[in-house]
Amino acid sequence: MAKKFNIQLNIWVTVNQSLLPVLVWVHGGGLQSGCSSQSIPRIYNGTNIIARSLQQQSVIVVTINYRLGVLDDMYSTELIQENSSEWPTAGNYLYYTNKSNALDVSNKIVQNMNCSKGNSEMTLACLRNSSIENLTTTYGYRQTKPIVDGYFFHFIHQQQLKKENIIKI
Q1: What pTM did the predictor assign?
Q2: Structure confidence by residue, pLDDT tens digits, 38-96
Q3: Cα–Cα distance between 90 and 92 in angstroms, integer?
Q4: Domain shared by 10 and 85, yes or no
Q5: Which of 41, 65, 89 corresponds to the end of one domain?
Q6: Which domain holds residue 136?
Q7: Do 58 and 116 reside in the same domain of the chain?
Q8: Where is the Carboxylesterase type B domain (predicted)?
Q9: Which of 37, 117, 133, 160 is the most exposed place for a label (fewest CB within 10 A)?
Q10: Mean per-residue pLDDT for 4-8?
Q11: DSSP states along 54-107
Q12: Which of 45, 65, 85 is the last residue of a domain?
């Protein structure tokens, strides 16, 4: 599975120190763009983060790269099916948990890429032979967000802010 999904993990550690806190940095980009080596080196480069942390307390820095946009969504169902015992809430994080909506999006992509070939094998072959640029352009920007289901977060953040039920630091 690692080859198929090609998710990368970068780790920066200072020399000769142990039992350090770990800072995990997940880049922004709305699940559509970005990477841990973006052109903002002062933010995304682990070496710079460690150098600044040495002024206070050293840390281990971990950054990740992950699939974005249509390249992520294409494999999400397969990942969940293969690893459902490990990820009991994985389905909560799909932006299109409504199957009919997912089918509508898929059909629109197939149609816009001129891959409606009559049967699923030919349609899939057409999609596989398309360029990444064509696929991502056709897919477009789709905002994704987690679903608040009460399993992980037992409250809705906006409601807590309105109630001023927050810890002031």
Answers
A1: 0.43
A2: 555 556 677 777 777 776 778 888 887 666 666 555 544 554 455 445 444 444 444 44
A3: 5
A4: no
A5: 65
A6: 69-157
A7: no
A8: 8-71
A9: 133
A10: 58
A11: TTT---EEEEEE---HHHHHHHHHHHHHHTTTT-TTGGGG-TT-SHHHHHHHHH
A12: 65
